[in-house]
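Researcher: Here's my situation. A collaborator sent me these components and asked whether they could plausibly form a single complex. I don't have experimental data yet, so a predicted model of the whole assembly would be a useful starting point for our discussion.
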Amino acid sequence: MSEENQKKSTLIDWDSRYAGRVPYLKSSAIRDLLTLTNQPGIISLAGGLPAPEAFPVTEIKAAFNEVLEKESTKALQYGTTEGYIPLKEYLCESMRKYGVPAEVGNVIITNGAQQGLDMVGRLFVDEKTVVCTEGPTYLGALQTWTFHGAKYCTVPIDKEGMRTDLLPELFRQHHFKFIYALPNFQNPGGVTMSLERRQELANFAQKYGVFIIEDDPYGNLRYEGKDVAPIVSLAKDNTFYLGTVSKTLAPGLRCAWVVAPEAVISKNVLAKQSSDLFTSMLLQMAVHKIYTSGMLKDHVANVRVLYKERRDAMLTAMDKHMPKDVIWTRPEGGLFLWVTVPSIVNTTEIFEKAIENGVAYVPGVAFYPNKVEDGLHTMRLNFSYNNPEKTKKVLNV
Amino acid sequence: MSEENQKKSTLIDWDSRYAGRVPYLKSSAIRDLLTLTNQPGIISLAGGLPAPEAFPVTEIKAAFNEVLEKESTKALQYGTTEGYIPLKEYLCESMRKYGVPAEVGNVIITNGAQQGLDMVGRLFVDEKTVVCTEGPTYLGALQTWTFHGAKYCTVPIDKEGMRTDLLPELFRQHHFKFIYALPNFQNPGGVTMSLERRQELANFAQKYGVFIIEDDPYGNLRYEGKDVAPIVSLAKDNTFYLGTVSKTLAPGLRCAWVVAPEAVISKNVLAKQSSDLFTSMLLQMAVHKIYTSGMLKDHVANVRVLYKERRDAMLTAMDKHMPKDVIWTRPEGGLFLWVTVPSIVNTTEIFEKAIENGVAYVPGVAFYPNKVEDGLHTMRLNFSYNNPEKTKKVLNV
């Protein structure tokens, strides 16, 4: 480019060019805070990361080798938006065993569960949409739906999960379009929704014509107690079920799935087609190889042993070291503890102090879509990522 | 679920639940037609698929093995939304050689180039947005931007590419926000934009404060003639440059990138975070290994030889067999020929007849956002996927 042209060029004022929805696209203050947790020397209880020791590396490597050896043409070419059919068939079968009524036409493979949440946003959320979430709830769902224009109402949780008794009154006030539920080892609350509550939620959805997004990343990670029937098994025509390999195999495989009524899946396919065409066949075929190798049952059992140890170590350390007026959940599975501190303590305010002392957590406010005060005195602690010795070391400080 | 509850359940009328933008989310009639091309026995000149013989399977397998051997913890864990820094550094360096001014802060890795186009849609397109595309243009860009609310005006192309002389008048009429250009071996037109036209486009963008999306999937696939400077090198503050590994390595690796002003990349990061959190580190690290193994130069040279042969075979067969009043482009690279038939022939109407005769193409109407008549007498033919013998066989029918 000539100097003359350089001079003629007018810098674009990008802020004036963005679409109307872009102001909703914010890096939460929390995400900014959390960049601090990546500093060397910080022991982070903040993330939601699986333990790298739990990745079945040998099996993953063997699967990639086999797929590239035998089916490279299919694995490396463009693939269908719907997903790799043998993987979908396998998932359907294992989900049916788990109580999820799924046929191949009910399933789409997504690039991680976040993409499933985004598809829900693309298809169902605009500026007229009210979403009912649990309070607290998953940060990533709020981020995408807020971008698509969502307003929110929240239903509190207690030790049996979502307070379904409050739904009719909330609906009268807010006319929400759908309810977002994390029924197993809730992120961040750590609680599991009882069967009674699930049934009550299913009945509510059917009676009021609302639908449910059942997000179940941790369902396989139960360390005690018995599986509870998935919501989708109680209200199959009203429920989107989201599953993923991220917590049982590895997040880097980017394979997740949505189970939903067939008519909606066909719209999901169009929404995904415009988003990113397809999810890598190589990844899907490798996941399928791993699943059908027969290693999954033992692997999940091992992961459960590892995470149970870590949960127990954290609970023991909490019992030993936390002041009496601090309370926390005792999750039957999943990755997180939810901690409530006395109301004189603001967990966002003490966050920097915690960082100075070498430990990070997520302040509770991050998990609420509306009023900031809702989470002021709470925090989420992750127990899956660090080994127990490290966790003890931190909590002994 | 009890029978009683089954009876109580009311089926949801999904159509009444969709967001306001969903009516824009259509499977084009063309995509439906194209499902016909997957029938056994059909030789398809319709897709935009690279030749599977061109996938560097051995190198890809070695790369996955090495990454999983040495860096599995990083490759399989959650990754950053921005992308794998060593890959971004490599891309910046090679793009600078190619004339694209890129630093790491100017780049985001996307899950294929379609995701880059969707990011542009998320950030810049709403119902008030007019987009100026070449006519004809890439189908996938139209699909995502239409979903985000775009209206269109089109600027025709001739053998030197976009008719940039028409831009000021088009702008006066339509006040478009940005211009979408495929300057190298255009999809579907097959033409390459001359340096003069690129400079004129750059000048126009700078003078009128519009920006340019420069989509360059085929830039490396030149079979004759000399590289022309990328538009971004002429208007770096006004241009988004989109690159991808899909056509030179393999689509199944799902690695592409956007180069843009740093302020916009930070918004892109937020948009991607809400879409799918991150692109698989395993895929990015494998691509990085392949790129830095030193194989790329020879590999691209080989692919060029293969595709040049296929282009020449198709051109020879066209010369030999096509009626005199049919004309077509003679692309210097890329994957496509653009064919114009006499105005008494409607390429959509004869499509089914072509399928009956065992050959598929894409009717021209698919590539125009507005008036259907624009593409009635044109079609796109792909020469990269089938081998020359097959192509000859088809055209000899």
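Model: Some features of this prediction you could bring to your collaborator: Chain B touches chain A through 94 residues (CB under 8 Å). The first helix of chain B runs from residue 3 to 8.
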